[in-house]
Amino acid sequence: MSVPTGTAPLAALSAAGVAVWLDDLSRELLAGGELIELVAEKHVVGVTTNPTIFASALSKGDRYTEQLRRLGNAGTSVDDAVFALTTDDVRSGCEVLAPVHQRTGGIDGRVSIEVDPRLAQDADATIVQARKLWQTVDRPNLFVKIPATRKGLTAITAVIAEGISVNVTLIFSLDRYRDVMDAYQAGLEQAQAAGRDLSDIHSVASFFVSRVDSEVDRRLDTLGTPEALALKGKTAVANARLAYQAYEQMTEEPRWQRLAAAGARVQRPLWASTGVKDPSYPDTMYVSQLVITGTVNTMPRATLAAFADHGTLPVHPPTANDYAAAGAHLKALQRAGADITDVTDTLEREGLTKFEDSWQELGDSVGREMHPEAGDTCDDTGSRNGGPESAQLLAIYLNDHYSAATGGLELFRRAAEAQTSTAAHTVLTELTRQADEDRDSLAQIMAALEVPISHSKAAMGWLAEKAGRLKTNGHLLTRSPLSDVLEAESMLLGVQGKKACWRTLRILADTDERFSTKHLDALAERAEKQLVLLEELRISAVTRALRPRLFSTR
Predict the structure, then answer these.
(1) Vertex 402, ends 511 and 180: CA angle to 5°?
(2) What is the distance, to the nearest Å, from the Cα of residue 141 to the centroid of all Cα atoms in its chain?
């Protein structure tokens, strides 16, 4: 239903049980009194930040200049200066939100600060920095943000167990969300075993919304069929609704019931990335369509203003029919050729890369402000090693391999799903997991080299694998006994190319400190082991598919 005339939309949203948070923070917002005004007049009861927000904040106004010059004169490192700036701002934000925190019994009035995104694949380092952030800000209404990477899950459990409240961020897939809920409960169980008061530990799980539609819609446009185009603009909300259904299911399980009886707080679902990217869609759709009691919606200022002006509420929260429709939509996507698993995997990698890029931008800006007399220490190409031509060629080389890795990952997934042999399925499932990690490693290397991923190339790799299904295996569209042989040979060629890439980068590592020689050696060694396993699968497939035919001709 529309908001009744005369009722402020944000007030109605808050009354519906949705916590309105602001996805923005800056010294300008704090010092100018705007955050206080938003809390008092716009029903804002929480704030989230991320590296992109801080990088943007530093570019506006001169409120950071004096502190940065002082830090520069004291010989402070750039990383330490970034830490000082961000924790100071977040501490100030916590103080503004303190009355809300007290009024809501600790549920709202929260301000989030993210661990250094460069630590996302290092659980131990993430834990160390989470402790440092918690101790430095030293406010009970802080949330430490930890990305929901595989390594991040380990850190989340450990940090929760220590009594540190966490905002788990960068969640895109339903499977990863279930892992996050499991990690939270595991942390609570450890905290309980250690004698901690569970009611003091809070958490939210930030499930990203609009980016899902952006990536899916791009792929549907590439497919271009009427069936594909009819699915545009619906995936993000469907994905989020299924996430909430998973949350409801979790709260009904005995494991959670035991924790709740011991005083544990629920880990509220938080809808993040709710700013609409496609101007053809309603600018409040990721708020209006996700009005569910007990959830949080963190909005950029433009979305907050838009909803305050003309936001509407639905007739009812999601029902069983809505969940069924959401599930049917994801199945329709798969049939149309848009792999939702690959979408969410891609979005996680891109999200980490974007935050790392923003962190680098923030560090560069801080460095310039701390030492304005030094000027820009990089040459005009931005490359620390080699000239502009070699940097460009390396970028092409890495993107070609990333595209191949995208197609290869899809091939591994399909081969694993199609396997009827239990042993082969087990091997291919593990190789698929390793191929996913290897592509992540390549993305991290590219981020370290400041080489942006060409998503058009990556899409071509994905489409090439799809087209590769139409092979001369005796059957045009369906599998034949020859399919296993051809797939094994294709996977062998792909891993050989991957191994060559690692060896090439290992050569560059001898003169470029941005590469980790130890990591590249480990990747090359793993590729060698993958080749051995694939050769065994190939031989087995040849025996099954071809030898009987040779015998039958005698």
Answers:
(1) 105
(2) 24
Inter-residue contact 230 to 204 (CB < 8 Å):
no
pLDDT digits (tens, 9 = 90+) for 266-294: 999 999 999 999 999 999 999 999 999 99
Q: How far apart are CA 472 and CA 365, in angstroms?
A: 55
What are 426's two structure tokens? 């087990």
pLDDT in tens, 227-263: 999 999 999 999 999 999 999 999 999 999 999 999 9
Would strands 19-22 and 44-47 be described as parallel, antiparallel, or unpaired? parallel
Question: What is the CB neighbour count within 10 angstroms for residue 1?
Answer: 9
150 vs 31: CA distance, rounded Å: 38
Q: Is the pLDDT of residue 553 over 50?
A: no
- The angle at the Cα of 446, spanning 440 to 451, to the nearest 5 degrees, equals 140
Residue 526 CA to its chain's centroid (Å): 25
**Across the chain, how many H-helices and E-strands are there?**
23, 8
Question: What are the tokens at 455?
Answer: 């998503």
Helix or strand (DSSP H, E) at 526: helix 517-545
Neighbours of 55 (CB within 10 A): 21
3-state SS assignment for residue 224:
coil
Amino acid type, 465: E
Residue 69 tokens read as 């010059």
- Token pair in block for residue 175: 């499977």
Q: Which of 118, 61, 119, 57 is nearest to 88 (CA)?
A: 57
Asked if residues 137 and 87 have their Cβ atoms less than 8 Å apart, the reply is yes
Q: CB 324: neighbour CB atoms within 10 A?
A: 11
pTM recorded for the entire structure: 0.70
What is the token pair recorded at 529?
Answer: 């082991």
Active site residues: 145
Q: Hey, CA dihedral for 309, 314, 317, 323, is it positive or negative?
A: negative
- What backbone torsions phi and psi does residue 143 show, to the nearest 5 degrees? -115, 130
Please report, as a single letter, which amino acid is at residue 23: D
